[in-house]
Amino acid sequence: MRIASILLLMVLATATFMDARPATACPLCKEAIAASDGGTPPTEEDVNNLPLAYNRSILFMIAVPYTSLAVIGFLIYRGVKKNQEYLARANAGDPQKA
After folding, report:
1. CA 69, CA 71: separation in Å to the nearest integer?
2. Strand, coil or helix: what is 17?
3. Neighbours of 96 (CB within 10 A)
4. What's the confidence (pLDDT) of residue 54?
5. Secondary structure (DSSP) of 22-87
6. Of 3, 60, 84, 92, which is least surrounded by CB within 10 A?
7. Distance, CA of 32 to CA of 47 (rounded, Å)
């Protein structure tokens, strides 16, 4: 039984690694590589733009989650402040709670 499980694990590992393809970081990088491999030799400008495309795509991948969290945090903060103001006005108008 142990030999069969080891053999199955080896077959699965081999099948997994046989279909390995080159990975691209993101769509922007894929587009930059595709634009530079148009069948003609890349020009000096194409060679210089490729690192810029990688850099910008990484910056976008980093900025989007933090921007989303900042917007959500701001909306929660604003909601809490409005709720505090509402409760303060409600308590000021109610003589029993003052």
Report:
1. 5
2. helix
3. 5
4. 78
5. ---S-HHHHHHHHHH-SSSPPPHHHHHHHHHHHHHHHHHHHHHHHHHHHHHHHHHHHHHHHHHHHH
6. 3
7. 10
What is the reported pTM?
Answer: 0.46
Q: Backbone dihedral region of 39: left (phi > 0), alpha (psi from -120 to 50 degrees) or beta?
A: left
Tokens of residue 59, six digits: 């910056």
d(CA 61, CA 28): 11
> How many Cβ atoms sit within 10 Å of the Cβ of residue 98?
7
Amino acid, single-letter form, for residue 36: S
Rg, C-alpha atoms of the chain:
28
Helix (H), strand (E) at residue 12: helix 2-18
For residue 58 the two structure tokens come to: 């990484």
Identify the pLDDT of residue 37.
Answer: 56
43 pLDDT band, cuts 50/70/90, is low
